[in-house]
């Protein structure tokens, strides 16, 4: 892995990513030596930098480092962490500060093939996701809610767990965005106050538009999900997974428009 | 500083404290080579460990390491960070996991003497503090809200800024707990859903009880604060600071019971 462009795997204790979770990250699929959906990940990283008041990072330098690290890797997971760097007494951030970039490669997870052929089983966790308009949407390093949610979801029969906010609106999976189909339309949770705006979620929204499939960004509660015709979750590594069952309620993935799924899968896996 | 008891200041990139803010911390005053309010800090750390599902740490070992590090330091700030350690794929924590303890000493901040003789000026920030019952009260490492709030508060005339939740109830300062006096009673925000339950806050509540001063834990909004007779903030390092003014509204610290202040100050600075 690379820390500010140099090989290494140790970071100073003073790094604000450790001290306060003061940073951002991106997780990307790597195929044939290249990161997938690079521009979309970099656009989200830039939005996060603005939200946190980081100076804009050099995306060309980052790309150069990433390509060097990914070369000769046919299939891997790339994680980019950008922290505010060291310094600043207490919570007050140094200005302008000197962010630290950490780039690492990880083995591709061995998701079972049935996730794609039959779909996954999901539950709903007790851990709630907080509401904060200023941080919602960004992939920042404050992820204790997801850690606690995931901790609940270690039942091997569940591949993902859905998280609700304190109003009991379903926001997302612990590591994915959620979509449901009803009639001829797609519905996905409003992320104005909670959750991470996934790059594959963005793709689904665009491709639904291209295919003239109505897509509504709205509040969804548990009862509404139970009345869906089909459901799917997305993220940059798992791609597009249909939901076979939510608790005991089963869904039929044949109700997912084939062309939508095909185009999303293709876009996700194109380096 | 010490990492798992050994001198060093580098931590592995894989540490979950960095990856997800998956950890806890404590900040203590050190006087005459000893940490102040040790038992109270350890009790809060233990509550945090339970909340996050960490195995309980060895507090005697921690105390031994802390005493070795603090020896010969007359006045300093001690920071203890306890992360879930390395490992676990994605958000799912390793079970039982092997937490990493980081102990560091820092210079005592040079707060102006007027903070204590005249009180401090405070503002209210726009950054909101999120609500999450499961994480409220604990001093965990997800502190981006405080970082963003503190970033707003870099006006030199303001020593602290108050944070509200999305219901516009005032919860705390960026690094302190808040109390107001009205008539013969003390009021302090309810931290069931947001904020950190400070060890000095706990002391204030106990000492108010000993002095038979009514103390109410309740919702407080901006208008209510403006109607206070006096106000003060507390934390383990600044101790007890009266608020001279909130925006342009001035408060008279003479309305703070002298005995309460005296006993809290004494307890805070006793090693």
UniProtKB/TrEMBL annotation, chains A, B:
BP-aspect Gene Ontology terms: 4-aminobenzoate biosynthetic process; folic acid biosynthetic process
Catalytic activity: 4-amino-4-deoxychorismate = 4-aminobenzoate + pyruvate + H(+)
Enzyme class: lyase
Cofactor: pyridoxal 5'-phosphate
Name by which UniProt lists this protein: Aminodeoxychorismate lyase
The family this protein is said to belong to: Belongs to the class-IV pyridoxal-phosphate-dependent aminotransferase family.
Lyase keyword on record: yes
Keyword line: Folate biosynthesis, Lyase, Pyridoxal phosphate
GO molecular function, one term: pyridoxal phosphate binding
